[in-house]
TrEMBL record:
Pfam family, one: HATPase_c_3
Keyword S-adenosyl-L-methionine: no
Signal peptide coordinates: none
The protein, known as: HSP90 family protein
């Protein structure tokens, strides 16, 4: 023997209100949607049939109910039983059960959302050639069908008897606001208490000049540019507004999405590729699907294809700008370079665009990488801003052109340049290579410095640093602390070993190299007058203090991390020098 499921309507309404819909506000959307669909259905058979929807709010009706009237197709008594009173049954599917493309609704649950704000829903409806039917549904699951006076016109009136605690949701002001939010782009005129809330022209049909005004009114900014977008296979048309200010790449870009001209979401995600965070879109699509709550786009292969095509269109806009208005492209890049750089990591065209147009900081002035290559052939670069700041002037003085690739994605972009042209040479600057370009001293001077170097090296030994004296420009720079990449790695390795347990420390030890091969260098500049005086100091104690101070200053200048031993040294050398400098202090060796 077979039985039918029993449905507890209260449970279903609870499910809808707490788990499906974000807020009771959606009741306005669902009622508007049903009214518009009914008009669409009627116009299939009678294209000239009247098409209007009007809402009366409780303040305007004699019994304090909210009424939604439409001139749609109406329902017969049989349809009322089948469609209104059966949850999950929709008149908007074809014989095979597929949702029909011309309608907004598809799930057969929308009307239930009225129970979020009403205890009782009344439907008075007349289908062409059939008597008027009166249906009343209660939130406890009962419903009644009756006959009554004939409606003058074909169509439907849905009446909501407000639930006491939901009266706010039905107040005139709120209803106008919600009807406008959801329905202002609908192709059918909608009035609330006599006021027309639908717009004459939707944004995707506005002229360029009007679009700038629209963006200002809707989003509160004057866009950098407006881009028309289109994906015919999804019945999608719309506009992308380029933000005039940088957007946070981590913040999800939300777009105003309409499906068949009904608002789906003001902050819909997933419409554009993630990198396209520099635009806000307003689009309408007839073929994209909503989730059941109608608050987000359903993720399917069509949405994926839309994302790809919209991404192509935005990329195309940038490339056209590069060709026709390079100045404007540079302005755009100065605002949105992070987005474009992200794109350049995956896309050769974008890489080319960054290469040609994005002015990078270099120690020879700002210029795009392409120009840098034309002038200096090899793209030599620093990977941190600190390293660049420390070495830029010294490198320039040795005629070594260096790019500051210390900002996000720049090293990866530079490393990808050979994909554009295999001839391109890129080279990450190893600071210790710089020292090989410095001049060595003549043998006599070198010999004379031996005693000084012996004392200085003893002071540097506990710090694991090698001291050398070279001559280099600019003469104003007394000392440089140079760490090659390998020793930076080794230092990090040692620091990690100190904090991990024994097993890991053992594993990491396998990577450790002999210390001497990779010691950082403190390079003193013999062209600097102060350094020359320091090398000539008679007192070993003073030499030690001076060398320690130069070491500390070089560390600070290069923004190198200070270990506890370095901080202690800085402190000691500063106080030591102070003692030497302040008259009346204890003489050397008596402390
Ligand atoms: N104003 C109306 N005029 C004519 N028929 C209506 C009206 N409102 C509802 N109906 C009928 O009742 C059915 C159920 O409506 P309901 O809003 O619950 O679901 P739906 O619109 O089909 O789908 P969805 O859940 O996606 O909104 C509709 O398919 C339609 O046939």
């Amino acid at each position: 023997m077979s039985h039918s499921f029993q449905v507890d309507l209260r449970g279903i309404v609870d499910l809808l209100s707490h788990h499906l819909y974000g807020s009771p506000r959606v009741y306005v959307r669902e009622l508007l949607q049903n009214a518009v669909d009914a008009i669409t259905a009627r116009r299939v058979a009678h294209p000239g049939a009247p098409a209007s929807v009007w809402i009366e709010t409780p303040g305007r009706t004699p019994d304090g109910t909210l009424r939604v009237h439409d001139t749609g197709v109406g329902l017969t008594e049989d349809q009322v039983h089948e469609l209104l009173a059966t949850i999950g049954r929709s008149g908007k599917r074809d014989e095979l059960g597929f949702s029909r493309q011309e309608f907004l609704g598809q799930f057969g649950i929308g009307l239930l959302s009225a129970f979020l704000v009403a205890d009782e829903i009344r439907v008075q409806t007349r289908h062409e050639g059939a008597p008027t039917v009166y249906w009343t549904g209660y939130s406890d699951g009962r419903y009644a069908v009756e006959s009554g006076p004939e409606r003058a016109e074909v169509g439907t009136t849905v009446t909501l008897v407000p639930r006491r605690d939901a009266a706010d949701w039905l107040a005139a002001e709120r209803v106008v606001e919600l009807a406008r939010t959801f329905g202002e782009m609908l192709p059918v005129g909608v009035r609330v208490d006599g006021e027309l809330i639908t717009v004459e022209t939707p944004p995707w049909e506005l002229s360029r000049a009007e679009l700038f005004a629209y963006a200002q009114e809707t989003f509160g900014f004057v866009p950098f540019d407006v881009i028309e977008v289109k994906v015919p296979e999804a019945g999608l048309r719309g506009v992308a507004f380029v933000l005039p200010r940088p957007a946070n790449p981590a913040a999800k870009a939300g777009h105003r999405v309409y499906l068949k001209r009904m608002l789906l979401a003001e902050g819909a995600e997933g419409l554009l590729p993630e990198w396209a965070f520099f635009v806000r879109c307003v689009i309408d699509a007839s073929e994209l699907r909503p989730t059941a709550s109608r608050e987000a786009l359903f993720e399917d292969s069509l949405l994926e294809s839309v994302r790809e095509q919209l991404g192509d269109q935005l990329r195309g806009w940038m490339l056209t700008l590069a060709r026709r208005e390079p100045q404007r492209l540079q302005q755009f890049l100065s605002v949105h370079n992070v987005g474009v750089k992200t794109l350049a990591l995956h896309d050769l065209e974008m890489l080319r665009l960054v290469d040609e147009w994005w002015p990078m900081e270099t120690n020879m002035g700002r210029m795009p990488l392409a120009e840098f290559r034309r002038r200096y052939s090899t793209v030599r670069y620093c990977t941190t801003v600190d390293e660049f700041r420390q070495l830029a002037a010294v490198a320039a003085a040795q005629d070594l052109a260096v790019v500051n690739a210390g900002y996000v994605y720049e090293p990866d972009i530079i490393e990808r340049l050979p994909l554009l042209d295999p001839e391109v040479l890129v080279d990450r600057l190893d600071p210790s290579d710089l020292a090989t370009r410095f001049d060595t001293l003549d043998p006599a001077t070198d010999l004379g410095l031996r005693p000084f170097l012996a004392i200085a090296q003893r002071r540097m030994d506990p710090l694991g640093c090698e001291i050398v004296v070279r001559a280099f420009d600019p003469p104003g720079l007394a000392a440089l602390y140079l760490v090659d990449r390998e020793s930076t790695f080794q230092r990090q390795l040692r620091e990690t070993q100190e904090v991990v347990d024994e097993v890991w420390a053992g594993v990491l030890a396998a990577f450790e190299r002999a210390e001497a091969a990779t010691r950082p260098q403190l390079v003193l500049n013999h062209r600097n007058p102060l350094v020359r005086r320091v090398t000539a100091l008679p007192s070993p104690e003073l030499v030690g203090l001076a060398v320690e101070s130069l070491y500390g200053q070089a560390l600070l200048l290069g923004h190198h991390p200070l270990r506890p031993a370095d901080s202690a040294l800085l402190n000691r050398s500063f106080l030591g020098l102070l003692q030497q400098a302040v008259p009346g202090a204890q003489p050397e060796g008596e402390n």
